[in-house]
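Amino Acid Chain and Its Fold in Token Form
===========================================
Purpose: to set a sequence beside its fold so the mapping can be learned.
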Amino acid sequence: IQPKLLIGSRQHEVFRNNHFIDALHEHCLAPEIVLMLNHQPTDFSLIEWIETAATSVVDIAPTPADEVAFFQLSGGSTGAPKLIPRTHNDYDYSVRASAEICSLSSATRLLCALPAPHNFMLSSPGALGVLHAGGCVVMAPNPEPLNCFALIQQHQVNMASLVPSAVIMWLEKAPQYQSQIQSLALLQVGGASFPESLARQVPKVLGCQLQQVFGMAEGLVNYTRLDDTDEQVFTTQGRPISPDDEIKIVDDQYREVPEGEVGMLATRGPYTFCGYYQSPEHNRQVFDQDGYYYSGDLVQRTPDGNLCVVGRIKDQINRGGEKIASEEVEELMLLHPDVVHAALVAISDEKFGEKSCAFIVSRAPELKAVMLRRHLMELGIAQYKLPDQIQFIESLPLTAVGKVDKKQLRTILNTSITS
């Protein structure tokens, strides 16, 4: 087994001796990574280590490819998070295939401004994909625009990955800081629904190419391709990584819907997991007898095979039998020039079962609920989809990965109703 990593000290004499490289090659040890430490003790013999390393690792069994590498957490934005076992095999495939789709290379310099352990930032293609390609990952503490713009300029970052809420902040600040983001060539957006109106602003305002990403920690990942048309990039969330990814779109009776109609997403494939850890009851609910996983997403498929994400099943509001897709209404509200963020959640109602409440972050204090309803009506929205309540709020609560935390919004709503 050939070592991949060599850790040594800059203070040790052997690293100032040209013979050490020759010794490595003589003993067939050519590590891919050399990690140099500044304060490592110098009382060891690297030459001795080189002479014994080959035999000391020979009996170490390699990790089976189908063994669990780590657990990830499901999003938890609409329910309790669950543990997702990911194997070396499936995750390695996802990383490598993603890196190829995104044309990563040693010249790629990725800004990591989202939590690194989450699937989007870790492997889609994320930090692992960039490191696999030999590129550079620049870490940022958060996606705050001014901090990120400075890092982009300092490190000549050419790729970044954001959730929609962060993109909105970047679009607001970018016109004043164009000189700092000139190196940015590709912006990936994923993690939540990205309205077409915002998607079209990315190349105009940020001056870079947009790539939409729709994936899940459970496996399936979709990308718009770098050579897709503008319409495909602005209006869809891409198509699967692998030709072996299988997708069904079904109705509430689990019958496949006609092409182009909205339904529930079901998938199975080479890198999609086989079940949540120690959750047999939940697994019975989300897997069918053929091994298809039902993600809870509402999607439709275009004739060219791209997916359009309409929303989440649990994020639908059932108002007296009329189904309201929250994301559809949210996207229309965002078209108002004074609306920065918008979220629609359900309210319990004795007569209708559920009604809707919109939480709005506005850049104009004079914006009123009646003005927003008038805006929606002018866009032709159905009467039953108009928000029954509208609350203005300073900021929307977010989960750790930057998605709108609708559980917290419902808590806020229930608290205000109770009080």
Summary: The first strand starts at residue 5 and ends at 9.
